[in-house]
Write a structure and sequence with these properties.
Elements: H1 2-5, H2 12-20, H3 24-43, E1 55-61, H4 62-66, E2 75-82, H5 88-110, E3 117-120, E4 132-138, E5 145-152, H6 167-180, H7 191-199, H8 203-223, H9 232-246, H10 254-266, E6 272-273, H11 284-293, E7 300-301, H12 319-332, H13 365-369
Parallel strand pairs: 2-5, 6-7
Antiparallel strand pairs: 1-2, 3-4, 4-5
Helix pairs in contact: 2-8, 8-9, 8-10, 9-10, 10-12
Length: 379
């Protein structure tokens, strides 16, 4: 963090290129590890299982899937979609069974001489785990790669470039989350939408996201004893929102973008952010749920793929710790000053969502929804 604080605004792009972008050998090592696990899940896992189980598809999520991996951060999320699962509830009820089987198969691989990988799987006592976490080491690369594998219900089916979910999918999601009393429980089912939301964005925006993630990780190490910070995904979405509202250009001033994100973090108690690229206000059930979501305590940052996932979280996480760190950075870091020593101006970005930034140009009904604002129903 100290190194970044000493970097001038004009040197930020070079800092990202040299220190944060993965180099080719690293990318190849991580890709090889991911290919190994994906092949295992598709071709070997669940053979001999007591009930017929078929892997319909395996999807790479997380930073590896979205193209925002940091150099030296060798981790990957792998979502395995299973054909026996016919609904969200069945995923919830049977996920422990599938995770147990994946673990058993991985441990069996460790005993095979022809399988040139080494696994490290931590013990846990969760009765209904959502994810299997482990590390993999192969002769093809020299360092551990960390994996999270999540079994999931294939609610989306075949996802193409112009895919837009049927509102019935979200109605089913909302009803099941209400029955189970959970929120964001099934976000893994929408991994492909999360990935698509970012993957086609400009390369420089992804670089800005890497810079924000690097800053966040430094804060995390410094503040971990003081409280739980908001999830990293919240900062990624906040960065995308800042760019959409403040710039939208393929080429932009990185220092301005960085400053804008940190300023928004200091104003977390005002944030209400959502997108309508996958769900919107047209369906009555979804609309009523969204109106409830965006009246929740600030900050509100809704997952663009899963409306039940509020990664802003209100008072759930210690945003104030991140805000304090951001305030200090904004006042002391060289990267927020121009060559004459004056503060660099940030982009003008509203803290509360506006019709144009949530897809109103594509979905005119959103404009009508914002008429609720005058009656106190909306942000």
């Amino acid at each position: 963090m100290e190194q970044l604080q000493r970097i001038s605004a004009k040197e930020l792009d070079k800092f990202i290129e040299v220190h944060l972008l993965p180099d080719s050998p690293f990318r190849e090592q991580v890709k090889s590890a991911i290919d190994t696990i994906c092949s295992f899940l598709k071709e070997r896992c669940f053979q001999g299982h007591s009930h017929p189980v078929r892997v319909s598809k395996v999807v790479k999520g997380g930073s590896s899937g979205k193209g925002t991996t940091l150099r030296g951060r060798s981790d990957a999320d792998i979502v395995v979609f299973l054909s026996p699962l016919t609904g969200f509830r069945e995923q919830f009820e049977r996920r422990a069974e599938f995770i147990k089987e994946i673990r058993r198969q991985l441990e069996a691989c460790q005993r095979e001489k022809g399988f040139a990988v080494q696994f490290e799987i931590p013990k846990h006592d969760w009765s209904n785990p959502r994810v299997l976490s482990f590390k993999l080491l192969s002769h093809k690369f020299q360092k551990w790669v960390e994996f999270d594998v999540l079994p999931a219900y294939d609610v989306l089916g075949q996802v193409t470039g112009n895919y837009r979910p049927d509102p019935k999918i979200y109605v089913s999601l909302l009803q099941e989350c209400q029955r189970l009393g959970t929120a964001g429980e099934f976000s893994s089912c929408f991994t492909e939408l999360q990935r698509a939301f970012l993957k086609q964005r400009p390369a420089k925006l992804k670089s800005l996201i890497r810079l924000v993630k690097h800053w966040y990780q430094m804060c995390e190490r410094k503040l971990k004893q003081k409280g739980s910070l908001p999830p990293k995904y919240a900062l990624e979405l906040l960065t995308i929102y800042a760019w959409e509202q403040g710039s939208g250009a393929l080429n932009f001033d990185t220092a301005k973008g960085f400053r804008t994100v940190l300023e928004l973090a200091t104003r977390h108690q005002q944030l209400c952010i959502f997108w309508t690229v996958n769900y919107n206000f047209e369906n009555e059930i979804v609309r009523n749920f969204l109106l409830t979501q965006i009246q929740r305590p600030r900050p509100v940052i809704l997952d663009p793929a899963d409306p039940t996932g509020d990664v802003g979280g209100g008072n759930r996480w210690c945003w104030y710790l991140l805000a304090e760190e951001a305030t200090e950075w904004l006042s002391t870091s060289l990267c927020f000053k121009d060559g004459a020593g004056y503060p660099i101006q940030s982009w003008e970005v509203p803290t509360v969502q506006t019709p144009g930034s949530c897809g109103a140009d594509m979905y005119p009904v959103v404009n009508e929804m914002f008429s609720f604002r005058s009656r106190g129903f909306l942000c």
